[in-house]
């Protein structure tokens, strides 16, 4: 993905920054829009994955809806041109202020996570003489087979309504006149790469929608959430998710009745591969047991490795360039003329702990990363950083806010 021209560009820029490949983003959006259109599926972009203005403007331009988890995201989505009729609002802890603002903005649907929340939304809607459209977020107790820190659909997780609470939900829906019941919602976790998980989810959803229909609560919207994973290990081989296979699972296994709409909320799968975090080596510390590469970026720019042990490919672009030059190396012949010597050796790989500058011991991108011998000033890229990267940047240690650079 990265060539010599890009390295020259990066060398001339102040680091650290997020580099956005807007062409790859466009291709990814195109692929998702095409694959979902095969089945008339509706896709909402999960705003929390990345709300860089250029990124969300691009996503909006493809006609996706927005999946929001805070009042700020609802506001940003509408300000960036997302159709209010395609905005959904989830979250276990919606405040009264957030609910009121979303009511004023007349969003498509509240994905409600408890009986108590149903009552509050009803009361707030009543005070405004409005009706709120709601879907029930159900915790289906389906194992997402992903990292335990990013699984959300098990009974031990805080999200959604557990199935034993559904009778209380049905009763509440019958008694709350300022709510309009739209359907059921699920989101069982993130970075899901095993598609059989989604098949299991479909089976549960089919049972649950039956349960609602039997209680005279017809379902118009089936919202299956997001969570489709990306390839963090081989970003160049698999830059775009297999959206066709993903949507096909739902087409094959979900029981969709006439007139029902099927909705999704994808975040990571749409944006992860289109950004890298670009930084420079500040210092190389060689110890007896350890070699440290100390970067000018750390957990304040990209916290995923420190927060949930996430893996990212880490490359030394400057080192790669040196290896390339050496492999096709220029050597002098007997007369002193420069000649190419293709057989000249490959520079040795060294293991480094790649760490940031923050005053926390956990501020480490990864231990024992094999890289070409590295020097102060080398450009290091952390790949697949477009999802849950820039959005989680913080000002800890009173550091400058991370910058963004775009391919166009
Ligand atoms: C975070 C989130 C998503 C998106 O998850 P990804 O793994 O990024 O696809 C979708 N729906 C809800 C309710 C979420 O909280």
Please name the defining characteristics of this protein.
408 residues, TIM Barrel, Lyase, Ornithine Decarboxylase, Chain A, domain 1, 2 domains, eight-stranded mixed sheet, eight-stranded parallel β-barrel, 12 helices, binds pyridoxal-5'-phosphate
Structural features, described:
It catalyses: meso-2,6-diaminopimelate + H(+) = L-lysine + CO2. The modification N6-(pyridoxal phosphate)lysine is found at residue 48. Belongs to the Orn/Lys/Arg decarboxylase class-II family. It is an enzyme of class 4 (lyase). This is Diaminopimelate decarboxylase. The chain is of the alpha/beta class. The chain has two domains: 22-272, Alanine racemase (TIM Barrel, Alpha-Beta Barrel), CATH 3.20.20.10; 273-406, Lyase, Ornithine Decarboxylase, Chain A, domain 1 (Beta Barrel). 31% of the residues lie in helices and 24% in strands. It has twelve helices and 19 strands. The strands form three sheets. Strands 1, 11, 12, 13, 16, 17, 18 and 19 form an eight-stranded mixed beta sheet that branches. It has an eight-stranded parallel β-barrel with strand order 2-3-4-5-6-8-9-10. β4 (87-89), α5 (96-105) and β5 form a beta-alpha-beta unit. α4 (71-79) packs parallel to α5 (96-105) and α5 packs across α6 (115-127). The protein is elongated and about 90 Å long. The mean pLDDT is 93. Residues 46, 48-49, 67, 69, 90, 187, 190, 225-228, 265-269, 387 line the site of pyridoxal-5'-phosphate.
